[in-house]
Specification:
By secondary structure, the chain is mainly alpha-helical. About 40% of the residues lie in helices and about 10% in strands. It has a single domain (about 5-120), classed as 2-enoyl-CoA Hydratase, Chain A, domain 1. It has helices spanning about 5-25, 40-45, 65-70, 85-90, 100-110, and strands at about 30-35, 35-40, 50-55, 60. The protein is flat, with a radius of gyration of 17 Å.
Length: about 120
C-alpha cells in the first residue's frame, strides 16, 4: 500500500467498494494480516473481513509506538501491537502460522460452500 494524501483519500473508496462487494453480492471476504500491517490497511480493508486472520507475532497497528507516545503523551505497553495481544482483545479471529494457512483457508471456503468437500461429489 502506498502512503500519502492520495492514498489516504482512497481508503474511503476501497472501504466502500468492499462494503458493496460483501453486502450486495453476498460474497465472502477473508483478510490476512501479516507483519507489518499498519496505517491505512489497518484503518480500512484490513479489518473489514468476514474472517480476519493474523500471523503469529505480526505487528498490527494504526500508528507506530513512537507516534502514539508523542501524540498522546502516554507510554505504549510492550507487545500491545502484536497479534497475540490483539487477538485476546478480540480484534480478529484466528492466529494461523503461514505454513498452515492454506489448510485453514481451504476449510473456511468449504464451510462457506465455495468448494465441494469431496472430489467424488463434483458433477
Amino acid at each position: 500500500m502506498q502512503e500519502g494524501s492520495l492514498s489516504l483519500m482512497q481508503m474511503a473508496k476501497i472501504s466502500s467498494a468492499l462494503y458493496n462487494y460483501q453486502s450486495n453480492k453476498k460474497l465472502f471476504y477473508v483478510s490476512i494480516l501479516t507483519s507489518p500491517t499498519t496505517g491505512g490497511v489497518t484503518a480500512s480493508f484490513g479489518m473489514l473481513g468476514d474472517i480476519i486472520i493474523a500471523e503469529p507475532n505480526a505487528y498490527i497497528a494504526f500508528a507506530g509506538k513512537r507516534v502514539i507516545e508523542q501524540t498522546l503523551n502516554k507510554t505504549v505497553p510492550d507487545g500491545s501491537q502484536e497479534a497475540e495481544y490483539l487477538f485476546h482483545k478480540g480484534l480478529f479471529d484466528p492466529i494461523v502460522p503461514r505454513n498452515l494457512l492454506k489448510g485453514v483457508l481451504s476449510e473456511l471456503f468449504h464451510l462457506h460452500g465455495f468448494f465441494h468437500l469431496n472430489k467424488n461429489e463434483i458433477k
